[in-house]
Amino acid sequence: MSINKIYKHPFLFTFLLWGFFFVSFACFKIDRVISISYLAAIVFFGIFSYLFAKRKEKIRKISKEKQKAPLYMLCGVIYAGIMMYTFDHVKSSPAINSRNDMIPFLFLMAGVIIYSVYVSIRKKWCEKRIILVIMLLSSIMHLFFLMTSKFNLSQWDMGGFFSGRGGHDGYIEYLYDNNFVLPQFDPRLKWQYYHPPLHHLIEAFLLRLQTLCGVDLKIAVQNVQYPPVLYTMISTVCAYLIFKEMKLKKAAVICSSAIVAFSPAFMFVGEFFNNDILSLMFTFLCILYTLRWYKSPTLGNILKIALFFGLGMLSKMSVALIALSVAVIFLYSLIKQVMLKDKKTFWRYFGQMCAFLGLAAPLSLYWYVRNFIRFGVPFGYVPESILEEQYIPENIIQRIFDFSPKLFSNPYFNTIEYEDTFNEYNPIVALLKTSASDTGIIRFQFGFWMGYVTLWTTVIIALTAFVLMIYVIFSKNSFDIIYKVFFGSAYIVYLVSYEYFCIKYPYICTEQIRYAMPLILIGALFIGLGLKESLRKKSGIFVLSGYFTSLSVIVFSLTSIFVFIYYGIYITLAFML
To answer: Which residues pair with 118 in a beta bridge?
Structure first.
């Protein structure tokens, strides 16, 4: 069973897998699965089963192994059909009591386990198969967390559908009610309407599509939680492709990919209704195609950067933070041609960059220029919180330099709203805590003991990444200087921007990992690069460093898997009792 085809079209495969999730389980809140879901789920499953089973070598004659492809497809379709049938009819059991969240999770996990056992028996494990299992486990965990979590769990700035209170929910509802026409009033008059509209337009379109298919609006509203899961899946695959562009192999790429795939921060942000994860996906795509353009400077690659940057800016203004690092690559490429005295290549690059601006500028600036001209909304406008309970009274010195033990006595995010004695005030500590457990969602299921485990595994990974980043950037190695500048500058920009944002707006809502998510990608990359160096040098200290890094990633991943699976099962059983 070859998986080369999957890695040739990873985004297509990811979308098909998500499509199977959506059409199969998006209606999990209704009494029965609608018939179109059966047909669509089987079609989706058949397509990506075909991509999974089909061999890449077209010239090779049909072999016995290739003849098994239809059999794999048939088994997959039958398996999907049984899963759907069980999923549909299990509600009739009084013991389940209308909670069927466990059914798709058990079937999907069983599928991954069966595949893993099959590969183990055949002794066919390799880097790509391990990565595939990591990606599948991550996707299933995201789906399970979404299905078992309370609707609108730990959301930020939502407002609520049908409430008339604005927020991201209200923004989506407004676009749905007004046939996708953008607000024709000053967006500052409605809470959260100042955000660019792409995410909200996509959600509103999905609402309309579902209601046209006969899905009740209240059910359709709950199903718009699914696109953020797709964006997270694509971001995870994109991170893997970035690691491959940086020539990470074997243990290095596996560890780096596992950090992103099983990061609790991605799990939480991937469940948010707001526009954070969509903007992060476009940021990752910008990074990926910037690296590809640098290696292969074609017009197609630079236009992809422009498209993703522009769409990212139409999702959230924070995507602009990646612009400096992208500009570094562009400027370096031009200067390099000047030094080589290659005028032809210089003007070709310059023309491509003009094309980049021609596409990126209108997309990036449309929303902000529109609001400035029509309503006088200043560029970079961010409303200040008016919630007194979220205010942080500590001064700047305390906020930046205070790492006293009291901040770590509670492994969860301190907030008066949760009856803690003070609001979390150190941005770095808040960054680590929200990376590990958001604002403390799991505290009521686990208590403090698991909070300490998740927090300190996160701290160890973060410190390891920082140390390895310093080592990789300042030591002599095969890592190209321009990549050091690219990722080093990105790390500084995101960290400083996050600190500045927290200080300028002293409220706990600003102290969230969602404002600095690319730091996880960069940290994971440097862990992989450091591991690659330790494997290459094979001397005592480097070998120990490699073992420590690998063990840390394994513990981090297993902890995250345990927390989210246990959380989902706990919530499901709580509803059943």
So the answer is: none
Strand (E) or helix (H) holding 6: helix 4-8
CA dist., res. 414 & res. 544, Å (int):
36
Q: How far apart are the first and last CA of the chain?
A: 43
- What's the token pair of residue 369? 């220029």
Please report, as a single letter, which amino acid is at residue 66: K
- SS3 letters across 231-281: HHHHHHHHHHHHHHHCCCCHHHHHHHHHHHHCCHHHHHHCCCCCCHHHHHH
Q: Phi/psi class of residue 97: alpha, beta or left (left: φ > 0; alpha: ψ in -120 to 50)?
A: left
- Contact call for residues 28 and 100 (beta carbons, < 8 A): yes
pLDDT in tens, 189-248: 888 889 999 999 999 998 898 888 777 788 788 788 888 889 999 999 999 999 999 999
284: Cβ contacts below 8 Å, ≥ 6 apart? 235, 238, 239, 242, 518, 521
**Cα maximum dimension of the chain:** 78
Q: Enumerate the β-bridge partners of residue 507.
A: 391
Question: Does the CA dihedral 519-524-528-533 come out positive or negative?
Answer: positive
Angstrom distance (rounded) from CA 269 to CA 40: 28
47/412 Cα distance (integer angstroms) = 43
Whether the model clears a pTM of 0.85, i.e. scores above it, the answer is: yes
Token pair belonging to 144: 């399970």
Domain boundaries, the chain: 4-153, 167-223, 287-381
For 500, the token pair is 């500045």
* Bridge partners, 391 (sequence order): 507
